[in-house]
Amino acid sequence: MKVIGETRAVLFDLDGTLLDTAPDMAAALNTLRREEGLEPLAFADIRPLVSNGSTGLLRLSFPQVAGPPFEALRARFLDIYRASLAAGTQLFAGMQAVLERLEAKHIAWGIVTNKPGWLTEPLLEKLGLSQRAGVVVSGDTLLARKPDPAPLLHAAVVLGLSPAECIYIGDAERDVLAARAAGMRVYVAMFGYIPAHERPREWSATGWLEGPEAVAQLLDALPPRAQVRPS
Fold first, then answer.
1. Active-site residue numbers?
2. Segments of the chain assigned E as strands
């Protein structure tokens, strides 16, 4: 796999790219449905929409609800989800090795997600990732969220890098749009939460990664960087 230019950081989307959060998101949605007297939805129907967050999931589950009743359902869903953030959530298979490869190559890694910080931070803490990530930009870190490039540009600034020195990996078109606007190379996590009607091969990405093993192959194409030691 050809990689152009020096890469000094790899930034990941969270849900559907670095972490498989679908089990806990689906469980929270079905708990809410049971509270509302509805039958649970099939996991296969919920999974593709997890990257769209609480709003996307609730529109799937309660398509006729709008306004204040919708916001009340959303608040209840988030309460349920927050209570069991990491019951079934884990790194995608192979992603632990990916992070270890980055660290061995002295390439920084971080997270840029639209998930709010009050969910992102405790989730990363529970999974032991908080201290490993070089930067974490949540959906409420700035006023803007993806597809705006501002969160990705902010991550580069925090790392002390130019956007051209960063790669972004995500599973939604907004990830591609944000990274392109930020001047970063961007790869689509095809193993993530992509609805069947979308056509990710038509997104203007740098490349497409079929699974975490493809992420590892991408990293193997990056030259190792010498560790900088303070004088």
1. 13
2. 9-12, 19-20, 90-91, 108-112, 135-137, 166-170, 185-189, 207-209
Cα 72 to chain centroid distance, Å, stands at: 25
Burial 112-151 (b: 16+ CB within 10 A, else e): bbbbbeebbeebbeebebeeebbbbbbbebeeebbbbbbb
Answer for the pair 111, 21: CB distance below 8 angstroms, yes or no.
no
pLDDT for the residue numbered 230: 41
Q: Which residues of the chain carry a pLDDT beneath 70?
A: 1-5, 223-231
Phi and psi at residue 194, to the nearest 5°: -115, 115
The DSSP secondary-structure symbol of 163 reads G
